[in-house]
User: Which sequence fits this backbone?
């Protein structure tokens, strides 16, 4: 979602008050993402919780599947 919005980890960290290293760990599955963090990311990226829920239903959820989801639904 961050890459879809063309945001750097540094920019997101400054905007939502998280360390870039923590964001990187979350994105790569090395750190658990809390519900509170998810809401911060969704607000920052301007995506709805419905879109997030649909993404989570993709199996397997990877960058290729997410990109296909965004393209097929024309979400920019």
Assistant:
């Amino acid at each position: 979602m961050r890459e879809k919005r063309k945001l750097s980890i540094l920019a997101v960290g400054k905007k939502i008050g998280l360390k870039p290293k923590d964001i990187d760990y979350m994105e790569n599955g090395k750190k658990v993402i809390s519900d509170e963090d998810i809401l911060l990311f969704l607000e920052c990226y301007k995506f709805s919780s419905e879109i997030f829920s649909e993404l989570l239903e993709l199996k397997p959820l990877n960058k290729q599947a997410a990109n296909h989801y965004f393209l097929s639904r024309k979400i920019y």
